[in-house]
Amino acid sequence: xxxxxxxxxxxxxxxxxxxxxxxxxxxxxxxxxxxxxxxxxxxxxxxxxxxxxxxxxxxxxxxxxxxxxxxxxxxxxxxxxxxxxxxxxxxxxxxxxxxxxxxxxxxxxxxxxxxxxxxxxxxxxxxxxxxxxxxxxxxxxxxxxxxxxxxxxxxxxxxxxxxxxxxxxxxxxxxxxxxxxxxxxxxxxxxxxxxxxxxxxxxxxxxxxxxxxxxx
Length: 216
What we know:
With about 220 residues, the protein is mainly alpha-helical. It is about 70% helix and about 0% strand. It is built from 8 helices and no strands. The chain has helices at about 5-30, 35-50, 70-85, 90-115, 130-145, 145-150, 155-165, 175-210. The chain is elongated.
């Protein structure tokens, strides 16, 4: 179905097109080597607002819907401990393991944001249409992320095996190996973060090259 535009709507579309053309022209004089896409976004947003318009899509620094507060985590752990009490060392190990789980989630999320970014509808958090392949690849990435996350069970598995063999049943293996696991994950995170920074820099340069290329 084709929706016919009114004269006023066509005028608004024409004005928006003129502003967009001015944005592209402005970027040619602003963008330089070493700039991040966030800095470019800020320049574009400021320019659009000086023209009396409002950007359809802006970069938000965080969001209440994605915040996981310390209070909520403590409340969730407290409820679980009340419903199914654990040994103190097991409870401590579980709290320690929250760090590697979070870091693994960050590494996977960063990679998807760099190579599989989704365009969302203006004013919503819903992805735009025409991104089926990206959505499928992101779903596959989430499924594959279960493999490294399953390694979180290794410390508890070691303690269980030691108990079956009656080896040092007094030794808090779950807690000790959880601490080792957290330290290794933290080290791995710092290494991969540098690699992802390089990936992001290359991606930004590709975006800036497209933005600043003058059409033939």
